[in-house]
Amino acid sequence: MAAEAVGARIRHLRTAEGKREVDLIVVRDDHRIVAIEVKLSHSIGEEDVRHLRWLAEKLGDDLLDAVVVTTGGEAYRRTDGIAVVPAGLLGP
After folding, report:
1. Closest to 27 in 3D by CA, of 52, 4, 9, 50
2. Among 16, 23, 36, 42, which is least packed, fewest CB within 10 Å?
3. 8 Å CB contact between 53 and 82
4. Domain that holds residue 75
5. How many structural domains is the chain composed of?
């Protein structure tokens, strides 16, 4: 994965109680994070980003970005700052 090529580590986050989960956590050497959710859906709602929003509250400035990868056709940034990116734009 590209993140590992630049020295970042790839993790998965699930709280002990299983109430919160984020599919991919990319951790840089400076411990700052990019959080990624993968959804097999064309449209994204509040339920789809609730764990990313929770993580943003916990990490503050240590969260570099939050992203939802979808099956949709358009990339955009939500009003809460979370990026929505179609899987088709990520590469071949």
Report:
1. 9
2. 16
3. yes
4. 2-42+49-89
5. 1
Which of 14, 15, 16, 36 lies closest to 25 in space, CA to CA? 36
Confidence of residue 17 (pLDDT cuts 50, 70, 90): confident
- Report the predicted TM-score, pTM, of the whole model to 2 decimal places: 0.89
Contact criterion met (CB below 8 Å) for 29 and 64: no
Core vs surface per residue 24-51: b (16+ CB within 10 A) or e: bbbeeeeeebbbbbebeeeebeeebbeb
pLDDT in tens, 46-92: 999 999 999 999 999 999 999 999 999 999 999 999 999 999 998 77
* CATH number of the domain that residue 6 is part of: 3.40.1350
